[in-house]
Amino acid sequence: MANILIQIQRFNPETDDKPYMQDYEVSKDILTGMTIFDALAYIKDKLDPTLTYRAFCRSAICGSCAMKINNRAKLACKEQILFHVKNGKVVIKPLENAKIIRDLAVDVDEALDKLKQLKPWLEEDPKKVPDSTKSESLVLPQEFAQYDKLTDCILCMACYGSCSAKSVSDNYAGPFQFTKALRFIKDSRDGVDIDERIELCLDNGLWDCVQCQMCLAACPKGLTSADDIQELRRYAIACGDESTGAKRAVTWFRDVFATGQIDKYNLPVNAKGDIAKREELAKEFANRGISPDKFAPQPFEKIDEFRKFIRKVEEEVK
Ligand code: SF4
Ligand code: SF4
Ligand code: FES
Question: Which domains does the chain have, with CATH numbers?
């Protein structure tokens, strides 16, 4: 039976200058029914005891085996290897946005430090949580439903290792960190002031997310950090955030509601108070003999229907 080529990124910081790819060939017969985790264990056991990776539960629960499989972050113990074979090979690399400890094992400390900065714990609201163990702290089913799904995060870092914003910003907390922040904002027992929690999110780059949606694609538990970040941004605006990100969002919404389009000519002033930028644009228009008014967006014919649709969406997300 044919062999499958498994290419694995190797790196030992003590001996290697840079990462390199190493090839392992295993017969398709042996790999049939194996997960990526099983295949790595087979390689370590039979072919190369120096191969290093992290895994524990083998049940998609502990979150320790996230890695990049054909360039997508996945849990190695959840993925059948043959499903990922393309042109006879599978390529396995460590998660990005984290320092490599060795081969496929990455350092999780920085991501967890970022998480800590967002206060991922409950500070009990004394009105909700009794101070003795004689009575229970009651959470109504409809209250729990607000954050039930958000508690499914297993801290695997698949989202973090795929995040575009994290790859360019050291300050950016990361997707699962914001999902966790939202989880505590929504917990009816939490006594931390919402402004304080939102301030922590703002300090850790809430507006830096570029909504690339890679975190959604990566999450093995179906969590939607990109949407959670949008929800946190709505909270931020409601709390009076006046940062550039908040102003840009408010301006875009106002423009789109008014005409269906963004007023690009006035955007620098409306979103950032950047008069110099608009003057630059005005000069550019003048050089080309164009009046900026020509670019002022006008409402399109069915704008009323469009506005009704926006209002309906607003009601639904409330
Ligand atoms: S949507 Fe935002 S949080 Fe999610 S991966 Fe993209 S930049 Fe990161
Ligand atoms: S949000 Fe999903 S992908 Fe990100 S750490 Fe949690 S479980 Fe993993
Ligand atoms: S080994 Fe625990 S999630 Fe994969």
Answer: 3-105 (3.10.20.30), 108-238 (1.10.1060.10), 244-317 (no CATH)
